[in-house]
Specification:
Rossmann fold, nine-stranded mixed β-sheet, 2 domains
Length: 485
């Protein structure tokens, strides 16, 4: 049986700050259903819910070398939904609020990367492949090359490194190379981990892994160009033969309007009238005008520039003051937190138009599900988007996405064609507020035609973005690497 260990900093339901947590929480489940022994290892953060901590059992403990320091490492084990999770425990590094953003993140994740490798001979599970995710795990492959590759237990190991977002690379002062990682200065070269006279964790992961993947086909192409490449585009072009894009999926056990207990009324493609019930109850709950034929646009997102919030600043005020499509108005529901500039903008819009705009500056998973189920349109005008999860969830719930054609948004949303009637959403090509506005107007005009609208909604709900196909592609990659031995 193929044995895979996922190495990551997040996994639902234990830790989540973004899409990474969703992927690590759901992809191993699908791989297991396909006959793969997939397990996960991640830090034992303080903020993991107590209900899970009480179920963890100590698997082993030992000391880990962090430069000249000897640090305690415990490995805790928990089985959740049939998947074995391991948790790297050290209170100095992980017994604190939050997950990242500390001044010693370089030391914390240097420890984590070495602890993962040290634990492999102590947990009764030696994988065939280490599947590392994002910068926090970048040094796993580097340390494997430097200190473990010649050991008999490790010399079969293959590694794949997945980029979830190239913008966040884990860049630290060069002194950590010897002080924390115990690496020879031979590793500090432009074709290795050096990056503008610093150490770059993500670059290290890409350089020393057998294969590199990212989370959509389009993003795999985009990051080979300077605009999206975050100064690593040249390296990625050199390794384009080892770079593959596999679109993320969503967990259909979690996101299924037919059985979702968080929404007001369950429904499927054959009972869309119940989706309308969700809309009416959501309007009432949020203090908006309760009327089914008012189109509702949703934003469930981090409220930051790269998510297209500046485009919304340009057009929303005028849209709600002056725009009228036919004889009805438009409603907007926002859920998320982010930059104060955008939080305050949406608060102001809600104050100015209380019956039309609801600004929920928070994270609330139950409300998110209710918004997906109740809204008609889901707005995601990202500047760049490696994959995107929101548009996949929205389609699952019959909430038609309006997206910019970039990254995974381009790969998953097929624009509605008024002549053929095909498509599962709406899209625009250029990062331009007026182009986005025109696309919103096209979507609102289609909303008036109930028969055509419902056809597109059913198409969106029937689009298959579960993990089955993507997990199969990953399995083929694993097997390809192993055969290279």
């Amino acid at each position: 049986m193929l044995k895979i260990l996922f190495v990551a900093a997040e996994a639902v339901p234990f830790v989540k700050t973004g899409g990474l947590g969703d992927v690590i929480g759901s992809l191993p489940k699908e791989l297991k259903q396909q006959g793969v022994d997939a397990r996960v290892i991640l830090p034992n953060y303080q903020d993991i819910a107590e209900e899970y901590k009480t179920q963890m059992v100590l698997k082993n403990h030992f000391m880990v070398q962090v430069g000249w320091r000897q640090k305690y490492c415990g490995v805790l084990e928990l089985e959740y939904q049939g998947i074995t999770f391991y948790f790297i425990d050290n209170e100095d590094y992980f017994k604190r609020q939050g997950f990242y953003g500390y001044g010693d993140d370089g030391e914390r994740f240097s420890f984590f990367c070495r602890a993962v490798l040290e634990s492999l001979t102590k947990i009764d599970f030696m994988p065939d492949v280490l599947h590392c995710h994002d910068w926090h795990t970048g040094m796993v492959s580097v340390l494997l090359d430097a200190d473990y590759r010649e050991l008999p237990e490790y010399n079969h190991l293959k590694t794949i490194f997945t980029i979830h977002n190239l913008r966040y690379q884990g860049i630290f002062p060069k002194e950590i190379l010897s002080d924390l990682l115990s690496l020879d200065w031979d590793y500090f070269k432009p074709d290795r981990v050096e990056f503008h006279d610093t150490v770059n964790f993500m670059k290290g992961g890409m350089v020393y892994s057998n294969l590199i993947s990212t989370v959509s086909r389009t993003y795999a192409q985009e990051i080979q160009y300077p605009y999206f490449g975050e100064e690593l585009d040249g390296f990625l072009r050199k390794r384009q033969g080892d770079l593959v894009g596999i679109v993320n999926g969503i967990d259909y056990d979690v996101y299924n309007p037919a059985v979702d207990t968080k929404i007001f009324s369950n429904y499927d493609v054959d009972s869309l009238a119940n989706k309308t019930k969700n809309k009416l109850q959501l309007q009432e709950q949020l203090g908006l005008t309760v009327k089914a034929d008012i189109p509702m646009i949703a934003i469930v997102s981090r409220l930051v520039g790269p998510k297209g919030m500046d485009l919304l600043e340009c057009i929303l005020a005028d849209m709600f003051r002056y725009m009228s499509i036919g004889d009805y108005e438009v409603q907007l529901v926002v859920l998320g937190t982010g930059e104060a500039r955008y939080e305050n903008f949406f608060k102001y819009m809600a104050w100015e138009h209380p019956s039309k705009v609801s600004a929920n500056i928070m994270f609330n998973d139950t409300l998110a599900h209710q918004i997906y189920a109740g809204a008609d349109l889901f707005l995601m005008p990202s500047l760049y988007e490696p994959c995107g999860i929101g548009q996949l969830i929205a389609m699952r719930y019959g909430c038609l996405p309006i997206v910019r054609e970039t990254g995974g948004l381009r790969d998953t949303v097929q624009a509605y064609n008024q002549y053929t009637g095909t498509g599962n959403g709406f899209s625009f090509a250029n990062y331009n507020a007026h182009e986005m506005s025109d696309t919103i107007i096209r979507a609102l005009l289609l909303f008036k035609d109930k028969e055509k609208w419902d056809t597109v909604v059913r198409t969106a709900m029937s689009s298959d973005y579960g993990w089955q196909s993507s997990a199969k592609q990953y399995q083929e990659l694993y097997e390809k690497m192993i055969k290279q031995l």
